[in-house]
Specification:
By secondary structure, the chain is mostly helical. It has one domain: Cytochrome Bc1 Complex, Chain D, domain 2 (Orthogonal Bundle), CATH 1.10.760. 32% of the residues lie in helices and 3% in strands. The chain has 7 helices and 2 strands, in the order αααααββαα. The termini are far apart. The site of heme C has 28 residues, from helix 4 and helix 6.
């Protein structure tokens, strides 16, 4: 009996310590963080798009957490934006931080690739834009029609991608998903130290080769090739650079 009491007490203490360290302390750390002024709550369409993102498993290949230069120098060089901070996720429930990066980080994709046409076409067929892409196509988010009907959002595709004699029309789901993707833009300044562009003099060893603000989108293991696509110039132009 004595042993059982000790066992129960030990278990309770372990659980108590774990709860304090993993639940209570983090909660105390973030509960008073105010949302950044430039961060807008998601619209209804964007919320629906977020659910489509979850339902289609985008989070299994895409993170939403550009990391600190000291921890992952390549993140800034890839044009993924400044390291994210807790306030960036104020309206994210559940959060979609992700743990895998088969594809690029998407926390700032709305700034990097603001073209809805590109986003829709890329969802319909990623390989129309990035030939070596291993991202799945999502044709079931689109409809094929012989001709567009009134109110149809026809997807502008590179030549030869739409089936012959048909037009590709985006469903509500595809449009909502793209609304959500375009809302992913946390490029507003937060703290001076979190700028992706290192201040002169404080440059790290890789700074000479880095091209701040240019989205290559290509990491050796990521194989995005996105910068070689039609959207590349738009990407490069809109990438978060040091606004302080
Ligand atoms: C099996 C892994 C995988 C899944 C699942 C996946 N992607 Fe991707 N995604 C990639 C890869 C790899 C790339 C880079 C090549 C390319 O652009 O197609 C990419 C690129 C992208 C890009 C362009 C990023 C940039 O910086 O140019 C967007 C946007 C994107 N994915 C959105 C999505 C969405 C939305 C979903 C879910 C509907 C999704 N992906 C599901 C692997 C994936």
């Amino acid at each position: 009996m004595e042993n059982e009491a000790k066992l129960a007490a030990g278990a309770a203490v372990s659980l108590g310590i774990a709860t304090a360290a993993l639940v209570v302390l983090p909660y105390l750390q973030v509960r008073d963080i105010a949302p950044p002024a430039q961060l807008k709550p998601y619209t209804e369409a964007q919320q629906r798009g977020r659910q489509i993102y979850i339902a289609n498993g985008c989070v299994y290949c895409h993170s939403q957490q550009p990391r600190d230069r000291g921890f992952a120098p390549a993140d800034a060089e890839r044009g993924w934006g400044r390291p994210s901070v807790p306030a960036d996720y104020t309206y994210d429930s559940p959060h979609l931080l992700g743990t895998m990066r088969t594809g690029p980080d998407l926390l700032n994709i709305g700034a990097r690739q603001p073209s809805a046409d590109w986003q829709l076409g890329h969802l319909y067929q990623p390989r129309a834009y990035v030939p070596e892409s291993n991202m799945p196509a999502y044709p079931f988010l689109f409809r094929l029609r012989p001709t567009a009907l009134d109110g149809d959002r026809v997807v502008v595709l590179p030549p030869g991608i739409a089936p012959r004699g048909q037009v590709v029309v985006a469903t509500r789901e595809a449009l909502d998903l793209v609304e959500y993707l375009l809302s992913l833009d946390r490029t507003y300044p937060i703290l001076p130290g979190l700028d992706p562009e290192p201040a002169a003099g404080s440059a790290g060893p890789d700074a000479s080769t880095a091209v701040p603000g240019v989205a290559t989108g290509v990491a050796p293991e990521v194989e995005t090739g996105a910068a070689r696509t039609a959207g590349a110039s738009a990407q490069a132009a809109r990438v978060p650079t040091g606004r302080s």
